[in-house]
Amino acid sequence: MNIFRLAGDMTHLASVLVLLLKIHTIKSCAGISLKTQELYALVFATRYLDLFTRHISLYNTLMKVIFLGSSFSIVWYIRRHKIVRRSYDKDYDTFRHYFLIIPCLLLALLINEKFTFREVMWAFSLYLEAVAIIPQLVLLQRTRNIDNLTEQYVFLLGAYRALYILNWIYRYFTQPHYVHWISWISGLVQTLLYADFFYYYFQSWKNNVKLELPA
User: Fold this and answer.
1) d(CA 93, CA 18)
2) Residue 214: inside a domain, yes or no?
3) How many angstroms separate the CA atoms of 8 and 184, rounded?
4) 36 assigned to some structural domain
5) What is the predominant subcellular site recorded for this chain (predicted)?
6) Measured between alpha carbons, how far apart are the two ends of the chain, in Å?
7) How far apart are the C-alpha atoms of 30 and 40, rounded to whole Å?
8) Mean pLDDT, the chain, as a whole number?
9) Does any domain span residue 54?
10) pLDDT in tens, 15-71
11) Is the pLDDT of residue 215 over 80?
12) 32, 60, 81, 101: most buried by Cβ count inside 10 Å?
């Protein structure tokens, strides 16, 4: 464990807490893409197949449980909660997210570290996580009505991945034979997808104006 990974994990956890805070306190999911949340639920479900068969540490297990439980609970709230689901931007959240799943699965079958079910699913989860934010970004561009909690949620998600890239760089120079090209490339792609959002986020912060993404 190094400072960059710990900061990345805490930032990721903070993004989840911000989203849950919005849902629980405001009883609203306006500006939140159900499609992205469903993709994240699939990401964690396929990545943590070893939850009950491989114990690394209490910290590792706890984080797996938190991300699995929170992702599925968020999907449930948006789909089923009698109050929260009324605020869902269904007419704007129309990106066909299932078009992202099949290419990621095919890529995982072709490019993986070991051709076993668990390793293919691990690679699939990385590829899918890299593009899972796309429906959310498209939704924000369409609605152009971004509240403070939603913008903080997306910013923290992007910051988490950027910190993980620093973690990989640190480990590459401090740990012998630490090479994980699949993680590195998918993480870089994911971070680049946030570049446009980061630019307008910092512009709004600098000018003290409401965040708006161009259509």
Assistant:
1) 20
2) no
3) 15
4) yes
5) endoplasmic reticulum
6) 41
7) 18
8) 91
9) yes
10) 999 999 999 889 999 999 999 999 999 999 999 998 888 888 999 999 999 999 999
11) no
12) 32
Q: Is residue 168 part of a domain?
A: yes
Q: Minimal CA–CA distance to 163: which of 136, 198, 191?
A: 191
> CA torsion, points 37, 127, 43, 94, in degrees to nearest 10?
20
Six token digits for residue 152: 């903080």
Dihedral of CA 79/39/105/114: which sign? Answer: negative
Res 145: pLDDT: 67
Q: What percent of the chain has pLDDT over 70?
A: 100
Percent of the chain with pLDDT over 90: 67
Spatial separation of the C-alpha atoms in residues 65 and 60, rounded to whole Å: 9
Q: How many domains does the chain contain in total?
A: 1
- Helix, strand or coil, per DSSP, at residue 215: coil
User: 82 exposed, middle or buried (CB, 10 Å; 0-12, 13-18, 19+)?
Assistant: exposed
Find where tokens 């956890």 sit: 13
